[in-house]
Amino acid sequence: MTSSVLIDRQDLDFLLRHVLDTDALFGRERFAEHSRETFDAAIATAQRMAEDLFLGHYEKSDREEPRFENGAVRVIPEARAALDAFGGAGFMASSHDFDEGGMQLPHVVSLACMVHFYAANVGTASYAMLTIAAANLIQAFGSAEQWQTFGRPMLEGRWFGTMALTEPQAGSSLADIATMATPAEDGSYRIRGNKVFTSGGDQDLSENIVHMVLARVSGAPSGVKGISLFIVPKVLPDGRRNDVALAGLIHKMGWRGTTSTMLNFGEGGDCVGFLVGEENRGLAYMFQMMNEARINVGLVATMLGYRGYLHAKAYAADRVQGRPIGTKDAAATPVAIDQHPDVRRMLLTQKASVEGALALCLYAARLLDDSETLADTAARKEATDMLGLLTPVVKSWPSIHCLKANDIAIQILGGYGYTREYPVEQLYRDNRLNPIHEGTTGIQAQDLLGRKIVTDGGQVMAVLCKSIRETAAPMTSPLARQLEKAVQTLESATAALRDCIGAGNTEKAYWHATSFLESFGSVVVGWLWLRQISALPGLDADAAVFASAKEATARHFFETELARAEWELGRIQQDCRSGR
Amino acid sequence: MTSSVLIDRQDLDFLLRHVLDTDALFGRERFAEHSRETFDAAIATAQRMAEDLFLGHYEKSDREEPRFENGAVRVIPEARAALDAFGGAGFMASSHDFDEGGMQLPHVVSLACMVHFYAANVGTASYAMLTIAAANLIQAFGSAEQWQTFGRPMLEGRWFGTMALTEPQAGSSLADIATMATPAEDGSYRIRGNKVFTSGGDQDLSENIVHMVLARVSGAPSGVKGISLFIVPKVLPDGRRNDVALAGLIHKMGWRGTTSTMLNFGEGGDCVGFLVGEENRGLAYMFQMMNEARINVGLVATMLGYRGYLHAKAYAADRVQGRPIGTKDAAATPVAIDQHPDVRRMLLTQKASVEGALALCLYAARLLDDSETLADTAARKEATDMLGLLTPVVKSWPSIHCLKANDIAIQILGGYGYTREYPVEQLYRDNRLNPIHEGTTGIQAQDLLGRKIVTDGGQVMAVLCKSIRETAAPMTSPLARQLEKAVQTLESATAALRDCIGAGNTEKAYWHATSFLESFGSVVVGWLWLRQISALPGLDADAAVFASAKEATARHFFETELARAEWELGRIQQDCRSGR
């Protein structure tokens, strides 16, 4: 286990083994051939590859963003070298079957590999993230032939994937997608329409690009029930260039290494698309990809914040400035800034956010594994439902709090942090996308309140609250008592919101949706902090420094963010219960 | 009065006339020749000039940041044209005497002019801001000859000024400044040292650059009591080039139109500096410039947020997306996004922050006028002291909350907001400097807690609280009652912090310094919102829409940010009173 600028490896191992009990996975049939050693080897390979091939061109991929030159999009060559190595090492297929050439790793371990690439260079790593998600989508809902034709080359890292959903008039509102698909005689479809913000929509990194496109078959019902999913490759299986044209590159605030494109499908009337699954079920399929993408977005947000935290921490230990508060002697020796209370507070806030968010995202991945590999059907369903409830939180909470952590990193570095000589401003700019794409925070809040909390009568939420109480009950720590109180407040606020909507006062309820989402998330992250505390006694004696830092961080989180969330939930409840 | 993308002119006029009673200034000798018409004419000229000459190259000044080419720094020519016009119209001298060629405007009106330039193009306007502040510094503490030689050309806009404080090892800790000054036989000094982050430290915009440099005279005491202030021009009065060399340009996250430089003074052993005032009193002098700069930083932060708010508001009224919450019919007509509760909430939060911050900054400028032009000595001193107490708040609160407003603007524009096709991401990047320069938020918090609150025994704070209560007492609005409660909580938290420090528990007290500063600011801004509400009845009947929007915004501010501040102050008090 070597130290890293990307992540605290001791923290990652602690979360996997002691908090999320990845050892238990060896007992499941799918992972029977794995061991601690195979997990660790995959993670160590990812760390090394991320440090050697992804980290070095992080700044360059921002400075020299992809350009359209001589009829083609040019991405810096370092990105191709990194992605070729990524694919060559098998990371595109890390969670796929051995039979498919995959590593058959649990999702939680696959993501424990991905964290390194996300932290090192999100612009380059995104091509992989999108490809993995697109391949999973075809595997889940496409035909065996589609999988052989399109999925396999993606697993091998030769072809890359995209998700082409957004249109100029249809962003948050996918119901308004207007791209049309007309059946052709050979069983394929002809696609016509315009997409915007398609990440990786064009590049010179892979042999082919497989677009997963939402479109309407002529005559389909309006709204979300008339949307179908198509595979639209840039190059057709017979080697012909498909009628997909780049209409323009979009220039972003950050995350510049990943192209963001405007694409025209079928301008020449000859864009071939292949229907995935059945007509009009496309949005339901796409939600699988979006849910996977949302966990990954949460994790990217986490890792950008995490790396910024590690950078700020190292800087603050090194940068000498000022004297301890109250020192009157001008000749006294100056101290490192991590001795100043305000800086220590900022570092602790960062640590609480990024380590809490990492626990949250890995817990979500663990739920995904449970939903697929637990023996018991009811337990699998419970994991599936819990993941559904938590997905908007996993996507949003890190996007809010780890972005704040990046803001704090800039502040700790001061004037230096504001310059492009240090990575913290780029980490901030890159992270600023996460509250927007794959459903804005506002859309996630609507999903949580309108779909996940209200419609199922609160059953999954009740399971969550029960789990939280089960963690807290046997613990003697005052933090456990605070969390029990917080859960109760969360339940009361949830009930008040539900009643508010039930009484037809939807405006008022949705006014609070985003702050409810954030505070809900803080209770869940508080739970994961308590689970960390309860796991500390399992550590070796030589982890005492690590353990006491974890305890101090948890206390800080409970005193500040969890306390704020309790207050906010109380305020929401009060407003929903008021007659106004 | 024409509408503007830079500021709501109705809001600005309301604040000046109805909330801050600028009419009262005509009764003072200095402003006796002024009238509403002369004030309005100056503001209208500023608005027109900012829109015509500053706004147009806002994006370009970011994209084509200043470069070092062929031995000189090149700034885009549009900046020079804009600043030439600015100087030509007399804005460098807007608050100076008629005799000096100035407009003799009150500071509050001068700043009401400046807001337009700050909103339109902070990168270009900063050269003016620095020049005005440097000229004021020479006027206050320099000799008559220095004023003639260096100050006058700055007022005329031919020479620009800088403030050269920070050194590689001395940022927040000015006590550690190491630049040396050695007396020469002609009465001038020879300067030797390195400065970093000097804004406007080199450029091709003005005939000369006048650096206001902090340095130590050989043999001076260590610490802040051994710092002297020098005028160090790029070109000496006799036309020779002074020994000031550009060591490098610093590349920033934003605010790119203003050069940020590393300067070497006296590499060739022949850098001539002219002492301002007396030796070893330099830091005290510089504080005048810093205090002026701090008000301007608050105002810049405000205006970047304000313009972002206006942009987001216009976008949200125009962008059609989605249907009202609860609409089941997929064929229902989509609505503009400002109909969605979450977007309305975000817009209201922006409005509360930027209009509140504008009131705060203009109130500070009004205090500056009072401190200079009130007839009564005691009243002048009270204004001076109040401004001193509020300066860290004026600098920081807008830097926190109007930056958040810029973040919200990006969020409202969604994917578009994240692109460089819209100004909101640049406004954010530009604003991100404000919590850092001229003393970070942490430094301001230390100033408020350690100097402004504790050392004077709380006398000025008591005056502030009395003023707040005087506003609230006659009002029947529930907001007035909430503010009275908030002031009491502020007083209790302040007392607890003071006792904590008194008991030697400085670590704990300073742990809370930044959040105390922010919450203190929210109470003060709450007061200014209440003052706005109390001024609404003075408006004409045709301002009903304006007035009801102000009321709704004040309510929102009290329900969210002021309530949060009360909670936070309670938490601080509790922790300070606890035995831990």
Could you walk me through the main structural features you see in this protein, from its secondary elements to its overall organization?
2 copies of one chain form a homodimer. Chain A has 580 residues and is of the alpha+beta class. Chain A has 3 domains: 9-155, Butyryl-Coa Dehydrogenase, subunit A, domain 1 (Orthogonal Bundle); 161-280, Butyryl-CoA Dehydrogenase, subunit A, domain 2 (Beta Barrel), CATH 2.40.110.20; 440-580. Chain A is 56% helix and 10% strand. Chain A has helices spanning 9-19, 36-54, 58-63, 77-88, 107-120, 122-141, 144-155, 282-318, 341-373, 377-413, 424-431, 441-453, 459-472, 478-502, 506-511, 513-535, 544-577; strands at residues 67-69, 72-74, 159-164, 180-183, 189-199, 208-217, 228-233, 244-249, 260-265, 272-275. In chain A, the strands form 2 sheets. A 5-stranded mixed β-barrel of chain A has the order 4-5-10-7-6. The first copy, chain A, has a two-stranded antiparallel sheet with strand order 1-2. In chain A, helix 9 crosses helix 16, helix 12 crosses helix 16 and helix 14 runs parallel beside helix 17. The mean pLDDT of chain A is 96. Chains A and B meet through helix 9, helix 11, helix 12, helix 15 and helix 17 of A and helix 9, helix 10, helix 11, helix 12 and helix 15 of B.
